[in-house]
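The instructor's notes for this session suggest beginning with a concrete chain rather than abstract definitions. Hand out the sequence below and ask the class to guess, before any prediction is shown, which regions might be ordered.
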Amino acid sequence: MSKVVSPSQAVSQIRDGAVVSVSSSSSLGCPDLVLKAIGARFEAEGHPQNITSLHPIAAGDMYGVKGMDYLAQDGLLRRVIAGSYPSGPSSLEMPDIWKMIVEDRVAAYNVPSGIMYDMHREAAARRPGVLTKVGLQTFVDPIREGCAMNEKAAAAPIVSRTEFGGETWLHFPNIAPDVCILRATTADEHGNLTYEHEGAYLGGLEQAIAARNNGGLVIAQVSRVTMRGSLRPHDVRVPGHLVDLVVLDPDQKQTCETPYDPAISGQVMRPWDSFTLAEYGVEKVIARRAAMELSQGQTANLGFGISAMVPRVLLEEGHPEAVTWAIEQGAVGGVPLTGFAFGCASNADAFVPSPQQFIYFQGGGFDMSFLSFLEVDVEGNVNVSKLGKKPYLTAGCGGFVDITARAKKIVFSGWFEAGAQMELSEEALRVAKPGKFTKMVDQVEHVTFSGARARETGQEVLYITERCVIRLTDQGLVATEIMPGIDAQADIVGVTEGRVTVAENAQLMDKRLLAQAPMGLVL
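After discussion, reveal the predicted structure:
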């Protein structure tokens, strides 16, 4: 008997007060049609009421895939626990979910994505919750915000500090899902799911198991249905005995503004010269300096922002396969994509389910991570997860906290000043007009990365900007390399009022960074 039902039939089985787990990464793999049906049912019937939604990575974006915004209705959504949230520029309207958060109409939490997947695994196995050191001394820690994003959340904590084996840990009690909503490409009549057109597996299997093991409902959205027995067993990522209902959406996009690109799902390999290279400018200069930290054969993690340009620098320099990139959505190898397709990769060697990728990250198995920053303080703390004035300009922490917890080496990239106008030539980079404010502050608004813990655990930490390379030391932030054209005292020490000092043996940064032609990078 076929499990295929309409979206409205599927969501009619979601009860009031349910905990609903959604597999998605912004628009990548988002089961948007099912989420839309939940919102429409509530508008028509007033049910389901007071649900809790779990999102290891954000569902939906600000560019046409509403995702979790369908759930952002008073009376429908009581609590939301997410690794990230829809984000975008200030020129676009604030998403409804963010309006609910800032107006304290829903209890909202930002929990690192890897911990979110851990929570599903522990709930599935009926173990007593997640015990982890990921997030210690950051906003995740109860000594700070304890993941709470507003007053309603702060009044109902979901994490505590505990002593175990003579060490301090963070404990997240189980939150068992009653419903799992995931997306795949193909389902057969029994509900077996394959992902051949998807850009990532994400955590659909683990989330489905968590729901099934707690007596819950599993709803799968797919673009096509085939006869039972026609799928290769090795291709099935979620077996049919875990799936209750299948919703058909033949128009689902692979990711935002991408109906289907076979290179994203690994079905074809793109020629290296088909990729767009990084545009010449200040941010490319920063990305080039970051790339100089790499060596042949290393494995590196990559985040959003300026750091996402580093693979394009390697392409231009003739090193397309010198480094293995690993991103949290699960792609390993190839070239991570940018813009609307961020989270996907072309020419990948493999796709790993996100929960397993985060195990690799949390254990620090990779060589280094390239990440961005919004602001850095005198302790070396980094904020990427909160902007009080414009909260939806950041997605939250995502996998940032998991990745940085035990990374051997972290290279943060960003602008030294916000809004500064720079004069770039092949000889020098000069400040043409000062910015509105420095990114090097006394105290960050949100501690997404703890400089104190990094020093305790011996992590190597660099902050690469257009003006200098800064290293985190026991003496604070010390500029060890200065960009040609930058006045160290006026443009670095003076602008930060001494928060960044300059090493006595500081060197000039390589002038090749400023070249319009390839810089001749050797790994």
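Then share the key points. The chain has twelve helices and 34 strands. The longest helix spans residues 32-45.
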